[in-house]
Design goal:
mainly beta, Immunoglobulin-like, five-stranded mixed β-sheet, 16 strands, 13% helix, elongated, signal
Length: 270
């Protein structure tokens, strides 16, 4: 009976995917993306900076096109994009700015990107934001949706060669993460944090979304790539499972064939 119950549990878990794909935010990254076609302005466009960006030639839909370098001295506007390997829906993003020199890049204004007509998001920032070694948490209602979504903009002046790195937020021990909008929200740590380079190609850092899914190493559940899971940890990788909450690895599951399953139930009766 125990084997029968475990086999049925496996079928149900595979059929449900354990976690809805659009709310499973593992493997997401924060990309820094410079938009040279957007002129600096003290006034935000009526549609908001996010929608304004999406209507320009600078809007991207793949990681290969990210622009992590401000090439000239002067004013610039760049964005933080949230990206995955597929479309997502999320309510909260938290990240920070790392250690950089305000003499290299001076931020004039910054803020969340929301669709035209949407309520202003709830933002909670640490002292000194936006600036070095500070962080912010932004919650949008309605939520952000899609992929390569602009969630924050920075407008400033580049003076010298250098870099402005994204970093974990220093709040409560530090995190850089995305949180979904479920009744019991689940937070996923970002897989990569980009860096905006200033005036020299060596300083920009690109980020590429990672295809992570459930990896069971005995009864421990992780969200990992297949290579790390199987080759490095000797675990079992489940590409149809997207969440460790609740963990599908708590009870070891014995894999059996469909024929074996029918045999266990006594075959078909006519």
């Amino acid at each position: 009976m125990g084997r029968m119950v475990l086999a049925l549990a496996l079928i149900v878990m595979v059929a449900s995917g354990v976690h809805a794909a659009e709310t499973a935010l593992g493997g997401g990254v924060f990309i820094t993306h410079y938009a040279p076609s957007i002129a600096h302005s003290d006034d935000e466009p009526p549609e908001g900076w996010g929608d304004h960006y999406l209507a320009t030639v600078d809007a991207i839909d793949q990681a290969a096109n990210q622009n992590t370098l401000i090439t000239t001295i002067g004013w610039s506007i760049w964005f933080v994009l949230a990206a995955w390997v597929e479309n997502k829906v999320f309510c909260t993003a938290e990240f920070g700015l790392g250690d950089y020199s305000i003499e290299d890049y001076a931020i004039d204004s910054a803020g969340p990107c929301v669709p035209d007509g949407a309520p202003a998001p709830l933002e909670s920032s640490t002292p000194g934001w936006p600036g070095p070694n500070a962080g912010t948490t932004v919650t949008a209602t309605p939520p952000w949706s899609g992929n390569f979504v602009p969630i924050y903009y920075f407008a400033g002046y580049a003076y010298y060669e250098g870099a402005v790195p994204l970093a974990i937020s220093p709040r409560d021990g530090g995190t850089a993460s995305f949180t979904n909008c479920e009744a019991v929200p689940v937070t996923f740590t970002a897989a990569c944090l980009g860096t905006m380079g200033l005036l020299t190609e060596e300083t920009g850092v690109e980020c590429h979304p990672v295809d992570v899914h459930v990896c069971c190493v005995w009864e421990a559940c992780h969200l990992l790539t297949e290579t790390v899971c199987v080759d490095e940890l000797g675990g079992e990788w489940f590409p149809d499972w997207d969440s460790c909450d609740p963990s599908p690895c708590d009870t070891p599951v014995e894999r059996i064939s469909w024929g074996e399953l029918k045999t266990m139930f006594g075959g078909c009766q006519h």
